[in-house]
Amino acid sequence: MSDKQKRASAYWKENVKYLFILLIIWFLVSYGAGILFKDALDTIIIGGFKLGFWFAQQGSIYVFVILIFVYVRLMNKLDKKYGYNE
Amino acid sequence: MSVQIWTYLLVGITFALYIGIAIWSRAGSTKDFYVAGGGVSPLANGMATAADWMSAASFISMAGIIAFAGYDGSVYLMGWTGGYVLLALLLAPYLRKFGKFTVPDFIGDRYYSKTARIVAVICALIVSFTYVAGQMRGVGVVFSRFLEVDINTGVIIGMIIVLFYAVLGGMKGITYTQVAQYCVLIFAFMVPAIFISIQMTGNPVPQLGMGSKLADGSGTYLLDKLDGLSTELGFNAYTNGSKSMIDVLAITLALMVGTAGLPHVIVRFFTVKRVKDARKSAGLALLLIAILYTTAPAVAVFARTNMINTVNNKEYGSMPEWFTKWETTGLFQFDDKNKDGKIQYVADKNRNELYVDPDSMVLANPEIANLPAWVIALVAAGGLAAALSTAAGLLLVISASVSHDLIKKVFKPTISDKGELWAARLSATVAVVIAGYFGINPPGFVAAVVALAFGLAAASFFPAIVLGIFYKKMNKEGAIAGMVTGTLLMLFYMTKFKFDWFGGGTSEDWWFGISPEGFGSIAMLANFLVSISVMKLTPPPPYNVQEIVEDIRIPSGAGEAIDH
Q: Residue B356: enclosing H or E segment and its boundaries?
């Protein structure tokens, strides 16, 4: 394998690792907090919101937005590290 | 000034704006027409994507559906936003690096097969036509209610406007009108929401107002009040649903994956300059979408509470003017079953006297809350912006599928750039006329086929694209078998339970308790399984295709979207 290929495959490995972590969070806030554990979280009340209901209709969406911007930051750094930025 | 004069004024100004932008941003080449020249800034692309994505369904229908479905409505909120995470992380950057014009372009090249390209074109056409018919209908409803013209005249006016900027400007015209339309629609959605939030809870931020105490000094939280009202009338508590957990999971997944697989959304990411711009503009698009999507559940809570308080157990004769106006559209229907002259609104179907179409909630909400005339007119202009922007985006996918994927790539590869541009304009015109026809004569199954559009996008495109990027060894046999299986399975299940084909069936007969709306997730899994199994039994893709995959994984050197 040439140096160029080695660099590319190391970059890809780190990229996939980031995706994996971010998608676990994506799953936990929507399918987890908003659906599977909704009833348990509903026993916690913050202001006028039951927590499970809040995650399903508000919280998950805020986390989605944050996730994409975290991804953008991580990838911009990764591009720089491997010299793929332009 | 009356509501009607305000409406004419605001709708007139916004339409003039769209036409002005269309003239300013005419397309000169196929590249302008398909991908707006490939130099759109991430922010402009984010705004255009948001307007493209937020359709009449998001603006007019969604808050109303949530108002009646309560917690069950969360599937739309999570499903239609969570899909952007998949889009940003799994699709957008790599498709931008690939750098072509359409989704079938990617499928056709990555799977080195004309068959794969044609299967993708057919899926893109079904998905887009289904969707666009709904948008034209939305335009008609807004026109008929607020400008008191005939629904059909409304559809035709909408057709002419879209025709004008889609045909003239292509993606370039569409992109910049969508930027303007985003501003109009978000302003139109937020202003009444903020007014009503202050009115009901004293909190100007609707997202917080939803979880605040009522402003009437009772010290009750709004959501507790609505839960109480709902159970009193025999409905489920608002914050609890009635759907099974497995179905909620399946629908949410089908909508998320379907969103990520919709061709008119994906194609927007071909218009930016670099891979890093594609990532950033996906984030900006979701941020701009989230403003509406986190407000909608608040609007739903306000509208439902307000409606129950305004109509339930009140004299029919004392109803305000807007009530009768909505009755004439057929979206409100009152039937005095016990002849006491009062409106009883309850869950029990035999005693309930009021039918409210969820589509009327967002449009009626400002009137129910007694807001000023200009706010009501603004909502009409916003609804039109939402419907027109989405219709235009879909028309572009349709015309590109025909002129680029079929004519240029399959039937007549020698066609000149100029000839292709004219073919694109012609197919956009034909598509507008067909969409208008469906808007005027809506097939009875529009609601059913919209769910089908998401199911199909989830079952056909998503697995083929993701495997194409993340699984280098995926070959054409696997991808085609998977797309065909997913699409057919989805069509079978939908027609069986929605149109009673193949012996029909009721919700008792659903597979694994999953509704047709959620079945896209099962069909998608079937696609993945079939793709991978068939791939194991057939020869690997040629070396140069594996090289393409390695190349799209690296962000640098994306260059401009080019035609090979």
A: strand B354-356
Exposure pattern of B325-338 as b/e (b: 16+ CB <10 Å)? bbeebebbebeeee
Which residues of chain A lie closer than 8 angstroms to B239, CB-CB? 42, 50, 53
Let me know if residue B563 belongs to a domain: no
Say if CB B184 and CB B14 are below 8 A apart: yes
**Residue among B59, B303, B308, B4 nearest B187 (CA):** B59
- For chain B, report the end-to-end CA distance as a whole number of angstroms: 57
Cβ contact B85–A64 (<8 Å): yes
ipTM of this predicted structure: 0.96
Q: How many domains does chain B have?
A: 1
Distance CA B210, CA B204 (A): 10
- Closest Cα partner for B478 from B122, B149, B113? B113
Structural domain for B244, as ranges: 3-552
Is A7 within 8 Å of chain B by CB?
Answer: no
For chain A, which residues make up each domain, given as ranges? 3-81
Answer whether residue B558 is part of any domain.
Answer: no
* A48 against B526, higher pLDDT: B526
Mean pLDDT of A8-17: 94
pLDDT at B447: 55
Q: Could you tell me the CA-to-CA distances from B188 to B55, B115, B175 in Å, in that order?
A: 14, 45, 20
> In this structure, how many other beta carbons lie within 10 angstroms of the beta carbon of residue B397?
28
Place of tokens 């009409």: B380
CA B499 – CA B503 distance, rounded (Å):
10
Touching B: A residues 36-75, CB under 8 Å:
36, 38, 42, 46-50, 53-54, 56-58, 60-62, 64-65, 67-69, 71-72, 75
Q: Quick check: B149 pLDDT over 80? A: no
- Which pTM does this prediction carry? 0.92
Q: Which domain CATH number covers B350?
A: 1.20.1730.10
* C-alpha dihedral sign at B136, B137, B138, B141: positive
User: Which has the closest alpha carbon to B403: B368, B427, B378?
Assistant: B427
- pLDDT tier at B564, thresholds 50, 70, 90: very low
